[in-house]
Structures are given as structure tokens and as C-alpha cells.
Amino acid sequence: MNECREELHTQHYLGRWHGFGPVRNREHVIFAVFEKTKRDGSQLTAMSFDSTQLAKDSESLVRALYVTRSIFDSEVAEGGSLQKGTLVGISCADVSRIRKLRTDIRTSSGSVNVRSLCILDKVEEGDYDGHATTGYGEGTAPQGIGQTYLGKVRLTIRLDLANEFSNIENPDDSKWPAQFGIPLKRFGSIMRVLRDTLLG
Fold first, then answer.
1. Is 106 a domain residue?
2. Tens of pLDDT, residues 82-134
3. 80 lies in a domain?
4. Residues spanned by the domain of 153
5. Rounded Cα distance, 99 and 119, in Å
6. How far is the C-alpha of 85 from the C-alpha of 14, rounded, in Å?
7. Which of 47, 129, 151, 174 could bridge to 19 as Cys pair (CB 3.0-4.6 Å)?
8. pLDDT in tens, 149-165
9. Is residue 14 scored above 80 in pLDDT?
């Protein structure tokens, strides 16, 4: 059984021929840090992430391969400033490392070890195409688990997630993809869909 089934197929609202396809393990994701983001100096903490958004697979991330600095500034930095204050910086993480995070869940029938987090290419109407989200893995909230215990489990997961992200840095110090390369990457995603269609 795949513990993050939605990762296998695009979550773009327009369907699989749009956007850049499912997030791949070799990618890096960016977490935008704003004035109101809880943090410990230059590092993220468990409280940097919104547990409610994680429960909905909706904690926003940026796919570093596909988002130019201008798109980041207009869609993320300026878009978040109304509710979260001005942008403080960015923090980056390796997708494959986040997907390797696991947690033990105690149930009435014993302990199970499950994927902690899933990363999706969730693009909803109004989002930019390089948008991604993360959320708790499907197995982290089995039936019968108490809410107090679930809260402790999810706090640990958020701490593990924070530890995967780099120190908060100035966006000016990051290497952003060039605009001229984005159409080629779109073409590559279309070719992957075509290949999967023909092989499937």
C-alpha cells in the first residue's frame, strides 16, 4: 500500500497536462518565512508550520526548479504579506529527505511505523504552477487514536520537518531558475505525461 497515494498523480486543478507534474524526489522545496512565522533566530521550529494546514495537505511550499525570482516575489512574497507580514527570508529542504521521515504510531493492536509527510504538486485556481504543498501522511491518524496523543505525534512530525530545512536565508543569496528555462521544463513534464500514457 502506498502511504501517499496522491503523490503518484498530479494534483493540478486543470489536470495532468498542466503544470510540472508530481513532485519528484530529486527536487528541493522552499518555505517562505514571514514576520509572523514562529522561528528560533535563523532556524525554523515545529511551530513554524500550521498543523491545521498540514492536516489538509495544504502547507504551502515552492518548487525551487520551477519558480523564478520574479514569480516568487509577486506570488509568494507579496501574496503572503497581507496576513503574515513582510517576507523575512526563505528556507530550503530536499524532497527525498522529507519523504523519508517516518513516525511510530501506537494503536490498540500495537505500534506501526508510517510515512510522516507527503509532498504534492497541489495547484488550485489562482496558484502559480510551481506551487507545492505538504501534509501529514495518511497513516499518521488511524481510527481510534486519542486526540491528545495525536497532537503529540504531530508536534514531533513538525519538529522533524523543521530540522530538514536549512537556516533561513536572504532570497538574494539563493540561485533561482532563469525564465528562459521554464518552457523547456514544461515541455519535459508534458513528455513525461505522454510517456506514462503510452506505457500505461
1. yes
2. 678 999 999 999 999 999 999 999 887 788 999 999 999 999 999 999 999 99
3. yes
4. 5-182
5. 7
6. 31
7. 129
8. 999 999 999 999 999 99
9. yes
Cα distance between residue 141 and residue 100, in whole Å: 18
Among candidate residues 189, 194, 197, the one with its CA nearest the CA of residue 27: 189
Rounded Cα gap, residues 154 and 151, in angstroms: 5
Task: Examine residue 199 and state whether it is found in any structural domain, yes or no.
Answer: no
C-alpha cell recorded at residue 49: 508550520
Residue 200 lies in a domain: no
The span from the CA of 136 to the CA of 124, in Å, is 19
Q: Is the pTM of this model over 0.85?
A: yes
- Exposed / middle / buried, residue 20 (Cβ in 10 Å: 0-12, 13-18, 19+): buried
| List of long-range contacts for 150-155, beta carbons under 8 Å, 24+ apart | 153/103, 153/105, 154/51, 154/54, 154/55, 155/46, 155/51
Q: 3-state SS of the chain: helix, strand, coil percent to 5?
A: 40, 25, 35
